[in-house]
Design goal:
A hairpin with a 3-residue loop joins β2 and β3 (about 40-45). The radius of gyration is 15 Å and the shape is globular. Helices cover about 15% and strands about 45% of the residues. It contains 2 helices and 6 strands. It has a 6-stranded antiparallel beta barrel with strand order 1-2-3-6-5-4. The termini are far apart. The protein has helices at about 65, 105-115; strands spanning about 15-20, 30-35, 40-45, 55-60, 70-85, 95-105. By secondary structure, it is mostly beta strands.
Length: about 120
């Protein structure tokens, strides 16, 4: 097996809704859904064609099963590394994305709110 073919993070077959847009774009986020997720990347289904090498911003509620921590919203900087057209007309594109950076954006706020509500 070539080093480039190895996966360094365990992948989970999880369907999680996400929102993405071109990096630093003022445009609205586009909704998509994942088919598998890891801490380093994800594979999503979308009706929009994305270009390999394109930087994108992703917002995802990362499940506890993946991180080992309570579910939290991640704001990610990512890059499109693979694009597969749908198998038939009208079917979504499959897009492989590598996460280069993420920031947990809401976990602390929600935990603080939950603690204050008790």
């Amino acid at each position: 097996m070539k080093m480039s073919d190895r996966r360094f993070a365990q992948r989970f077959d999880v369907r999680v809704p996400i929102h993405y847009r071109a990096w630093n774009s003022p445009s609205e986020f586009v909704e998509a859904i994942t088919t598998n997720v890891s801490e380093r990347g994800l594979y999503l289904l979308t009706n929009e064609s994305l270009k390999i090498g394109s930087p994108i911003q992703i917002r995802i509620r990362m499940p506890e099963a993946i991180t080992g921590s309570p579910e939290a919203e991640w704001d990610c900087a990512a890059m499109v590394v693979r694009v597969h057209p749908g198998l038939a007309f009208g079917q979504p594109y499959g897009v492989g994305v590598k996460i280069s950076y993420y920031e947990v954006t809401r976990a602390e706020t929600e935990q603080s709110f939950a603690a204050a509500s008790r």
